[in-house]
Write a structure and sequence with these properties.
heterotrimer, A mainly alpha, B mainly alpha, C mainly alpha, A: mainly alpha, 2 domains, B: mainly alpha, two-stranded antiparallel sheet, 2 strands
């Protein structure tokens, strides 16, 4: 049952990612990107990481995908891409894939099954965020505020 | 806390001492748990099957019960909305089909089913088709985490509140798909308006939930409902709406909920007089019905969450009335909130887009943060009367400052009329 | 039985897809989405590690999940600023094609 779910989610996520990287029509690419992100969130649920999965859906589908779609609408007519193909890029990508897979295949310690019944509750994560990770949390808050102001300043129309 | 609980038990103890003990304990307990027991009875047929079969059957039972209840409620709501609106506007409303027009939803459903399903020739077919499905799925999923009664949560998930908002945020993608897939200016404009307003009002909606989560220390709806059990002096329930921060947060939450479900004072995305029907312009027949259904389900979900968070969930308002089954209390409270939805629709005109946006960012958001701080004050003053007064003072202070800064009390210049010459 | 290696395999594939998207596509927005895919691949492997590596008491190790939470937050900030830059760039140059944006100053 677990393996079947894993296989299904993997196929869904990877095919959506392929579509996101390959489709010509920008909006379609953005929508399949959202599907790929939901697939990753489903992996998190499968791994017993409820909190991270919910945050993933919340931030990526609710905010990032919508923002990307808005940007696509604000920057229309940019779909012509027939200016040659970057074959060296394909070679580099394949080399990276080969290196990653080689490293994964060569590490026998990775082929361990999960211990059953290990789930992290939201409370545990909240306590970790409020005790060990409280300074990073504050920094992230500052960063988000700075990003908010920065994004606003960047897109403000200049007064003539 | 301790003395409150002791006093709170006074009346049930009296009941138990009198001859009503049997009734109190057994019959009402059975009626309260009748659906849970029924489900267990149905699942007992699967006792020999493997574990996962039982799990799937249990989920399927929950889902079908949820759908059955809310589809019925949807039909009733569509009828009562028209009836109540008609009452407000001094007319009869639907009264031809069946006694008192009660079969009107059936007639509407048949009409929607046999209508031609038109897809515009230049539309993006796949996106156009998937949009209503996504929106309806999100609305139904959001209903799943609400506790409808004692032990009656369709799926218990650790971060239930977070789940509600995570699922609700996928709605925006669905609305965008509807607007873009239709390949129509007005649909696109309506979708953009809808997304802009949903994003703006999602902030106060979530931040007004924060004080409740802070005070109960849990993201699980069941724990939040459990935290609101008990009565002061045997009559006054410990619902969060009876604390100063809770009352303000409830009003803010309800207004944001109105916006999130595109209801009338904020129905800018589908303003008929401006942009036809917004992102739903190019939909007809059953797909249009699904949009309608999603809107109502969203309304049920937001009011259900408001009941769960602020109105004590399935708890009875008086300890004397605890013998009434818990789910009846939940649906009674839900019904009251839905009536307020209809009442507001019958009373208020549509608001302008810029007014709505400035209201969200300049008033709702600061007030939502004020509620968070007020809840903290209440908590650190020992959750007693003094804490309530301090937090009330803080809220009033911020409210007065805000209204001063925003110039709410400003006198308007006398209206001038200009006529065509 | 699904092992840690399987999750890392999927994560590697996802990373390569994002990487290929960054290298091969010329549209700024697609490149941006591919970058996000790469971040997600890294997140997936982190969550997988946190699930499969428990401490000596058998308790879950949630450091990986906290880390993913921070990555998601930073990614949200990055998206806000990055997309704002794309919009500003489009206003100045009327294009989102990377090969048209090859001068340092305009």
């Amino acid at each position: 049952m677990n393996s079947a779910a894993f296989f299904f989610i993997a196929v869904l996520t990877l095919s959506a990612a392929v579509a996101a990287a390959c489709l010509r029509q920008l909006v379609h690419a953005a929508l399949s990107f959202a599907v790929a992100l939901v697939g990753v969130a489903a992996f998190y649920f499968l791994l017993g990481a409820e909190f991270v999965g919910l945050v993933q859906v919340f931030v990526y589908v609710g905010a990032v995908a919508v923002l990307i779609v808005f940007t696509i609408l604000l920057t229309r007519h940019g779909t012509d891409e027939n200016r040659g193909f970057n074959w060296s890029g394909v070679v580099i990508a394949l080399a990276v894939l080969a290196a990653l897979l080689w490293a994964i295949m060569r590490t026998p310690a990775l082929y361990v099954a999960a211990q059953p019944g290990v789930t992290v509750t939201v409370r545990q994560i909240g306590e970790a965020l409020m005790s060990d990770y409280v300074w990073p949390l504050q920094c992230v808050g500052l960063l988000l505020t700075a990003a908010l102001i920065g994004a606003l300043v960047l897109v403000l129309e200049e007064k003539r | 806390m301790a003395f409150r609980c002791a006093r709170g038990n006074a009346i049930p103890v009296l009941l138990k001492k009198s001859g009503l003990a049997f009734l109190h304990r057994n019959v009402s307990g059975f009626l309260d748990q009748i659906f849970v027991l029924g489900k267990q009875w149905l699942l007992s047929f699967l006792a020999g099957a493997p574990d996962w079969v039982g799990q799937i059957a249990s989920s399927l039972l929950n889902i079908s019960a949820l759908l059955a209840v809310f589809l019925t409620l949807f039909a009733l709501m569509s009828l009562f909305e028209r009836k109540i609106l008609a009452r407000i506007q001094n007319r009869y409303g639907p009264n031809r089909v069946g006694p008192f027009g009660l079969l009107q939803p059936v007639a509407d459903g048949i009409k929607m089913l046999i209508k031609e399903d038109i897809v515009p020739a230049r539309a993006d077919k796949v996106v156009h088709f998937l949009a209503p499905i996504l929106i309806a799925a999100a609305a139904i999923l959001a209903l799943g985490i609400i506790p409808y009664g004692r032990n009656m949560t369709p799926f218990t998930i650790d971060g239930g509140i977070l789940f509600f908002f995570a699922v609700g945020s996928t709605n925006e993608v669905g609305v965008f798909m509807a607007g873009w897939g239709s390949n129509n200016k007005f649909s696109m404009l309506g979708a953009m308006r809808a997304i802009a307003q949903m994003v703006s009002y999602e902030l106060p909606l979530i931040i007004t939930v924060l004080p409740v989560v802070m005070v109960t220390g849990s993201l699980t709806p069941d724990a939040i409902v459990a935290a609101q059990g008990g009565y002061s002096l045997g009559i006054l329930p410990h619902w969060f709406v009876f604390t100063p921060w809770g009352a303000v947060a409830f009003i803010l939450f309800f207004v944001s909920g109105l916006v999130e479900s595109n209801r009338t004072p904020f129905d800018v995305p589908e303003g008929e007089s401006e942009i036809v029907a917004g992102h739903m312009t190019e939909y007809s027949g059953f797909k249009y019905a699904i949009f309608f259904l999603a809107e109502y389900f969203g309304m049920f979900a937001v009011s259900g969450l408001a009941v769960t968070l602020f109105l004590g969930g399935w708890h009875a308002p008086f300890s004397v009335l605890q013998f009434v089954p818990s789910y009846l209390w939940f649906f009674l409270k839900l019904g009251v909130l839905l009536f307020v939805f209809i009442w507001i629709r019958g009373t208020l005109p549509r608001i302008r887009v810029d007014q709505m946006m400035s209201f969200a960012w300049k008033f709702m958001l600061p007030m939502a943060f004020t509620c968070v701080i007020a809840a903290a004050i209440w908590h650190y003053q020992g959750r007693r009367l003094s804490g309530s007064l301090w937090s009330l003072g803080w809220i009033v202070l911020v409210y007065l400052t805000l209204s001063r800064v925003l110039g709410v009390g400003k006198k308007f210049a006398p209206r001038t009329y200009r006529f065509a010459e | 039985m699904v092992t840690l290696g399987d999750y890392l395999f999927v994560s590697g594939l996802l990373f390569t897809l994002g990487f290929a998207g960054v290298l091969l596509r010329r549209n700024l927005i697609i490149i941006f989405m591919s970058l996000e895919l790469m971040l997600n691949a890294a997140n997936l492997s982190l969550v997988a590690f946190s699930r499969f590596r428990t401490n000596s008491l058998g308790q879950p190790n949630y450091d990986g999940q906290v880390f993913v939470f921070f990555i998601i937050t930073v990614a949200a900030a990055e998206v806000a600023v990055g997309l704002a830059i794309i919009v500003a760039l489009y206003r100045a140059r009327r294009t989102t094609h990377v090969e048209d944006i090859n001068s340092l100053k305009f």
